[in-house]
Structure formats: C-alpha cells, structure tokens
Amino acid sequence: MEKFEKLSGIAAPMPLVNIDTDMIIPKVFLKSIQRTGFGKNLFDEMRYNRDGTEVADFVLNKPQYRAAQILVAGDNFGCGSSREHAPWAISDFGIKCVISTSFADIFYNNCFKNGILPIVLPQEQVDVLMKDAEKGSNARMEVDLESQSITTSDGETFTFDVDSFKKHCLMNGLDDIGLTMENKSSIDSFEAKMSAERPWV
Length: 201
Prior knowledge:
- By secondary structure, this protein is of the alpha/beta class.
- The protein has eight helices and seven strands; from the N terminus they run βααβαβαβαβββααα.
- It has helices at residues 21-24, 44-47, 85-93, 105-113, 123-133, 164-171, 176-181, 184-197; strands spanning 6-14, 70-73, 97-100, 117-120, 140-144, 149-151, 157-159.
- It has a seven-stranded mixed beta sheet with strand order 4-3-2-1-5-6-7.
- A hairpin with a 5-residue loop joins β6 and β7.
- The two termini are 34 Å apart.
C-alpha cells in the first residue's frame, strides 16, 4: 500500500449527504476482487447518462476537478452496504483523502486499509473547506498526516483527530498483510519451533 504522509492537491466539492456505497460504486460493477479498474465507474449513475456520455455538470466531470485528489463531502459519507469496492473505486480514481462531518463505520475503517485518509471535522470547518474547494483547480489544499492538519488555499489551518494505530499504518503504507509481514521473523521462528516439536503436524 502506498504511504500517506503529506498531500497537496485539488479538492472537489460534493455537498450531498448520505452518499452510500451503491452511489459510490453500483452493485452491477462488483464482478471482480481485484483492487484496480473501478475508478472509471466511481459515482457511475451520477457521472454518466444512460447512453454512456458524461453528465457535464457532475463535479468530477468538470475540467477543473478531473484530477482531484481530495473530496469534501456531505454528512454520513459511505453509508449503506459494507462493500470494500467503494474505497477501491475512490482510490483507483486518484482520490486519497475524503473529508466529511461523519462516515459510516465500516467504510471509514476500509479507507485506512486501502490507503485513503478519511477526516472527520465539525460542520463549520467542512463548510469552509467546501467553499475553498468550489474555487476549482487554482485552489489546492494541503493535508499533512504527521501534524494532523489541513491548510486551505488561503492559508487557514484546521487540525483533525486520527487513531494513532491507523495513522501509523497509513504513514508506513501498511495494510493487513503488511502488518502481518512486520512480524515475519517471529512467525518464521514460531513455525520452525512447531515443526521441530510436532513434525507430524
């Protein structure tokens, strides 16, 4: 998993509340367990017309937001079913950070396991960031995980809380497999000991 330390990027404003995982990646696309290839279908039903053409006024179809790496969203982001394909699609599109007033618990935890930083802030601070995002590609936000801070294009800074263990995993690029591999030597020693003591197993 790619390390997350500091991100300076374009933020896309998406003030809708209760964006669920089926809106993020519709169930019709859940045909693979690979983590890549879902970005093209991110927000598919809002992003495309039935004939496959783009919905011109959808935020991620606008030229200034096509390279967005930060999403400023409405309340209760990622609610609905617990599909891990939702953070896969967000990450595959190129978004590395989602900011909201609240997230569904399963989606929130899945983000950390897939290299995405979900940030919870009070409504008044999200409102400021939403307005900053509305400025388009000339307004870049900076997200610093080490200092747990967000800086707007105007230099206004907000701090955020994050679990220390989740922070460690993101900053070191550790998913569940990576965490296990950190203990490889201990695992190998245990396996060797068990093989010697119980060779019939």
